Amino acid sequence: MFLKNTALGFILFNLLMIFFIENTYAEYRVYQYSVKYKKLYEVDKKPYLVTSTLDPVSYVAYHGGSQTMAIDLLRSWVCKGHTGQLKAYCPSPYEKAKEVKGF
User: Fold this and answer.
1) Bridge partner residues of 99 (DSSP)
2) What gap in Å lies between CA 88 and CA 91, rounded to an integer?
3) How far is 88 from 58, CA to CA, in rounded Å?
4) Do 5 and 65 meet the contact criterion of CB atoms below 8 Å apart?
5) Total-model pTM
6) pLDDT digits over 29-54, tens only?
7) Exposure of 67 by Cβ count < 10 A (0-12 exposed, 13-18 middle, 19+ buried)?
8) How wide is the angle at C-alpha 80 spanned by C-alphas 30 and 22, nearest 5°?
9) Within a 10 A sphere around the Cβ of 7, how many other Cβ atoms?
């Protein structure tokens, strides 16, 4: 008897939560880095710009560690939605500000 009431209560609670929670929104943070590899070749010595959803520590660890690369965090911003199915990141608010001001 107790088990049936507990299961029924759990099901009713979940149904109520579904009806009362209208919309939930996911969000993610985008990071922009200046990346410079620490290699002996002259070609690799120039820094380049990278945009990623990996935080600075994870980015360095995923791409070989601090012995092979140096990164500088330039900016970051929050985007609504998700990055599933290879969706592009949302544009930077800094770029939007440039467009509005006409720079």
Assistant:
1) none
2) 9
3) 20
4) no
5) 0.67
6) 999 999 988 875 656 678 889 999 99
7) exposed
8) 155
9) 10
Are 69 and 60 within 8 A, CB to CB?
A: yes
Which residue, 82, 77, 76, 75, is CA-closest to 27?
82
The closest alpha carbon to 71, from 83, 86, 61, belongs to 61
Q: What is the C-alpha to C-alpha distance for residues 37 and 59, in angstroms, rounded to an integer?
A: 13
Look up residue 11 and give its two tokens: 């099901």
Query: What pLDDT, in 10s, does the model give residues 50-97?
Result: 999 999 999 999 988 888 888 999 999 999 887 778 888 888 888 777
Within 10 A of 5 (CB to CB), how many other CB atoms are there? 9
Amino acid identity for residue 88 in this structure? A
DSSP 8-state assignment for residue 52: E
Give the Cα separation of 52 and 62 in Å (integer).
12
As given in the structure block, the two tokens for residue 67 are 């012995």
CA separation for the pair 74, 30 (Å, rounded): 11
